[in-house]
Design a protein that fits this description.
heterodimer; A: alpha/beta; six-stranded mixed β-sheet; B: alpha+beta; six-stranded antiparallel β-sheet; five-stranded antiparallel β-sheet; 36% helix
Chain lengths: 122, 842
């Protein structure tokens, strides 16, 4: 999926039983609501959770953080876990830490680690 | 023996001085002595039965029958007609002899009763006279007291302040006659007329006519009709009201029912005396009250005039003070600019409705100077115009509505005084006062007060006009001499504020910013001693001289010393204080020199404020050899330097230190955006009122040294966030910033812009603007502003966004603007300690 302005692209795939959502590009107030709808719809009920791959996310601010909190809340209500894969040296990771999302959602350095964590969960 | 005893008893009874009789329960006389028969002028037989009752006054019959019908002893006063037809007061006593008859005695007590009655009447008159200070009221009260007791008609007339004999009381037992007399007789009695009152006032002698036909007190014009004046003879007493020096009026008593006796004359004389002294007292009191009110009028008017330079305010104050003490209506009219007409500038009327009507009507119509009305005449001739009786009923003074100058007539004054307002031989206008409803009249006695008021007002108006003119010129000069616009200094914000003083007149405060060689700037603020056109002229000279001396970029102390010598070369000497500084915006340094000027205020970026104490030096113009010094002050980025004149801190009766402490406090509490710094200080230190002295304030903010500037304005739409973010990032990248810093600043900027996009506007389209500044030291300032209103923490997202800005930047502030909101944020150059922060976050 990509938004009208071409700012962001969301790519869904599966690593085994684990759905992975990769967000490429910029996530800001202009597109977060679309992205949230899409991501929530991409997780099947029987999945153990999902991995959000922010490795190629070039921009994220409090608007994006808001939907990540919302996503985590919805998955938790379905007893599913959200993990976020984000490199440890970028602005995106800083924002997640500074807004305390990292206190609620586990952050991993790469997608493989996130997928492993979810597979061992079941 | 018994017969002898009976005869003796009868003889004794006949010889007794009292009337004796035996009367039964039905008031029938069975026997009376000779004394009674002699009193009645008839034989005893002719009195027997109920015939004696014919001599009893009709009003007393009922009482007599009542007491005789019972067996209880009694003692009553009744009136009985004597043989000569005169009515006598009889003290009648009786005690029951048995169940059927009562023995009575009656003694003539008329004389003592009358004396006692007179005393009672005098006491009542005294009470009446003391009841009030209103002459007409008390005299009316006295007349009502006398009528029926002492007279059938009572008239009292007294001279008024103008000497006219005026009837103040007229009372008759018969209300119809009273009304008739009131209608037929004018209030003013001609003293040379034939009436009794006129004669008494003329001669000063009491008039006593036991029986008269004419003239009565209100005769002779025309004679009373028969119904009013019965054919019976009348009795008249007319007594003068006499004070120590003069006859001030007369009291006339007329009786149709009885003839006045010398005793009545005595009583009337006594009453007249008491009335005279009461009238005199009231008049003295009124005059002293009047005098006091008038004295205080002059004093308060003089006092108030000194407090303003506003001619209209003066005129208004004057008329409002004059009414009602000296007038029922008062107006001030001044020559218009052409000098052709008088224009009203103020009016006051005792009746607000009449005043409002006049204002809505002829108020704005000019008074033609060639008119015949009192104000025009007074203005034309330069002399007061006094019209004692201006009553419109007077023939020859018919309504001439077409003449707008007669507009004063609309207020129907009965007496008018128009005073020219003269100052130094020139007529400025007219003060017109009138009496309308109070019945008062102006006389020559009022001219001194009128003159006094007019003179004071004229002087004040002249002074105010001259002042207003001079101030207008001085203000115009000063404005023409102050710089129109401040130069743009890179990295330095500048704002100025100048307030002309209100109370005294315009001063010689000035400020200036002069570009100097080497990208430096000369900044001066100064205050020339004195006021008015002179001070403004000196200020202009100093300003231009300083520009010339500063132009080569010399250090401040040298420039100030040179200016000081210039003042002495110019002579005559004028003193001035000033503070001159040379600002180097590339280094954030300002070199300052003071000549006895109030110390500059430094406000640090952390909002701490302090005065910069420069070494003291004399004002310029004090001594040609004065020495001045230069002090360097280093400004941190974000620091504000405030230069001002003493009008900002000085208050009358307060040491300067108190004002200086106030400005330091105002500086440390300042959260206003820099552009509003000067307003902040004026608001806090002066407030709404116009300052007494001039105030000049100049503030400069050292932003740091600029290495780049960015300014983008976009529609307030979410889709615009990304383009602006990219522009900002590109701008930072081109300035050599790393990805880490660019990322942080871009997020902070976007957070602020998101607030503007999401919360600043309703459905209507707005805009947001991003302004960026990179300083020499590598610090970055970003300002995001919009034209709407929003509140921080309005929503969770907004709150989280601001929290993020706070964490990503080193300083940030949300500022309410006149129109809109801005978020200012600054990120310091990253030193090692900051990198440490970043590592912790990872």
């Amino acid at each position: 999926m990509s938004d009208v302005s071409g700012l962001v692209e969301v790519i869904d795939r599966h690593e085994g039983s684990v759905p992975v959502c990769e967000i490429r590009g910029e996530l800001d107030a202009s597109n977060v609501d679309h992205v949230l709808d899409h991501v929530v719809g991409s997780v099947a009920n029987e999945a153990p959770g999902m991995v959000l791959d922010l490795g190629l996310t070039s921009y994220l601010d409090s608007a994006g953080v808001r939907i990540l909190f919302e996503l985590a809340r919805r998955l938790r209500s379905r007893r599913q876990e959200l993990r976020i894969a984000v490199p440890d040296d970028g602005i995106v990771r800083r924002v997640l830490v500074l807004t305390a999302l990292a206190d609620v959602v586990p952050l991993d350095d790469d997608v493989a680690r996130s997928v492993r964590a979810l597979q061992t969960r079941t | 023996m018994s017969s002898q005893a009976e005869v003796d008893a009868a003889t004794v009874a006949d010889g007794a001085p009292a009337l004796l009789g035996v009367i039964d329960r039905a008031a029938r006389l069975g026997w009376c002595n000779r004394t009674w028969a002699e009193f009645a002028g008839r034989d005893c037989v002719q009195l027997l039965g109920d015939r004696w009752l014919a001599d009893v006054h009709a009003d007393d019959l009922e009482l007599v029958r009542l007491v005789l019908g019972h067996t209880e002893p009694f003692d009553i006063d009744i009136r009985m007609r004597r043989h000569d037809g005169r009515e006598r007061w009889m003290a009648m006593r009786g005690s029951a002899h048995n169940d059927h008859v009562t023995i009575i005695s009656a003694v003539d007590v008329s004389a003592s009763r009358k004396a006692q009655h007179a005393l009672q009447l005098l006491a009542a008159v005294g009470d009446e006279l003391n009841a009030s200070l209103a002459t007409d009221e008390i005299l009316d009260g006295v007349a009502r007291l006398l009528v029926s007791d002492l007279a059938d008609l009572c008239t009292i007339a007294v001279r008024d302040d103008q000497g006219r004999l005026t009837r103040l009381a007229i009372v008759d037992t018969d209300k119809r006659i009273e009304a008739e007399l009131r209608a037929r007789n004018h209030d003013v009695i001609e003293t040379d007329g034939p009436s009794a009152i006129a004669e008494v006032v003329r001669t000063g002698a009491l008039l006593y006519r036991p029986i008269v036909d004419a003239p009565g007190p209100d005769e002779p014009s025309p004679p009373l009709p028969e119904a009013i004046a019965p054919a019976a003879t009348r009795s008249l007493i007319c007594a003068p009201l006499r004070t120590r020096d003069e006859v001030i009026g007369a009291l006339a008593l007329v009786s149709w029912s009885r003839r006045y006796t010398p005793d009545d004359v005595e009583l009337a004389h006594e009453i007249a005396q008491r009335c005279a002294s009461a009238v005199e007292n009231a008049s003295l009191y009124r005059r002293s009250e009047d005098a006091r009110a008038r004295l205080s009028l002059v004093a308060t008017v003089g006092e108030r005039l000194a407090t303003t330079f506003d001619v209209d305010a003066m005129a208004d104050m004057l008329v409002r003070r004059i009414v009602p003490v000296f007038a029922d209506v008062a107006s001030v009219a001044l020559y218009d600019d052409d000098g052709d007409n008088l224009r009203r500038r103020a009016i006051c009327h005792v009746d607000p409705v009449a005043e409002a009507e006049f204002r809505a009507g002829p108020y704005d119509t000019p008074i033609a100077i060639n008119g015949a009305n009192p104000p025009a005449r007074a203005a034309r001739t330069g002399r007061p115009v006094l019209i004692e009786d201006h009553s419109p009923r007077e023939p020859g003074r018919g309504r001439r509505a077409a003449d707008p100058g007669e507009a004063m007539r609309m207020l129907a004054p009965t007496s008018v005084l128009a005073m020219p307002l003269m100052s130094r031989g020139r007529t400025l206008g007219v003060l017109t006062v009138g009496f309308v409803s109070s019945g008062r009249r102006y006389s020559v006695a009022d001219l001194p007060l009128g003159n006094d008021l007019a003179r004071r007002v004229a002087t004040a108006i002249e002074r105010a006009t001259a002042f207003t003119e001079e101030r207008r010129i001085a203000e115009a000069m000063q404005h023409s001499m102050l710089p129109d616009a401040m130069p743009d200094i890179p990295g330095v914000g500048l704002c100025v504020r100048y307030l002309p003083g209100g109370k005294v007149d315009v001063g010689g405060d000035w400020y200036d910013v002069v570009p100097l060689p080497g990208a430096r700037y000369g900044i001066v603020i100064g205050d020339v001693a004195g006021h008015g056109v002179r001070a403004a002229t000196v200020m202009g000279q100093l300003r231009h001289a300083l520009r010339a001396f500063a132009a080569d970029g010399a250090e401040p102390a040298g420039v100030v010393a040179r200016l000081n010598r210039f003042v002495f070369e110019q002579g005559p000497l004028d003193m001035a204080t000033l503070c001159y500084g040379v600002l180097d915006p590339t280094r954030g340094r300002i070199d300052l020199s003071t000549a006895a000027h109030v110390p500059p205020l430094l406000i640090r970026p952390d909002h701490s404020a302090e005065l910069i104490e420069l070494p003291p030096a004399p004002p310029i113009g004090a001594d040609p050899l004065s020495r001045y010094t230069t002090t360097s002050v280093q400004l941190e980025p974000g620091a504000v330097l405030l230069l001002y004149t003493d009008g900002l801190v000085e208050r009358r009766g307060e040491p300067l230190d108190v004002g200086l402490a106030r400005i330091v406090e105002a500086g440390s509490r300042s959260t206003a955006p820099f552009d509003e710094t000067c307003e902040h200080f004026v608001d806090v230190l002066i407030g709404e009122t116009r300052p007494a002295d001039d105030v000049a304030v100049l503030a400069l903010r050292f932003a740091g040294v600029s290495r780049g500037h960015l300014r983008v304005r976009r529609p307030a739409r979410a889709a615009e966030l990304s383009p602006v973010r990219r522009i900002t990032a590109a701008w930072l990248e081109s300035a050599g910033f790393g990805a880490e810093e660019i990322g942080s600043i871009a997020v902070a900027m976007t957070e602020a812009a998101t607030n503007a996009v999401e919360h600043a506007y309703g459905p209507a389209e707005g805009w947001f603007e991003v302004e960026g500044e990179i300083h020499e030291d590598g610090s970055v300032a970003i300002t995001v502003r919009d034209a709407g209103r929003w509140r921080p923490k309005a929503r969770g997202g907004g709150g989280r966004g601001l929290a993020l800005i706070a964490r990503l930047m080193d300083e940030f502030e949300v500022r309410r603007l006149q129109m809109g909101t801005e978020i200012w944020m600054r990120r310091a150059p990253r030193g090692k300690e900051h990198r440490h922060d970043i590592e912790v976050s990872g």
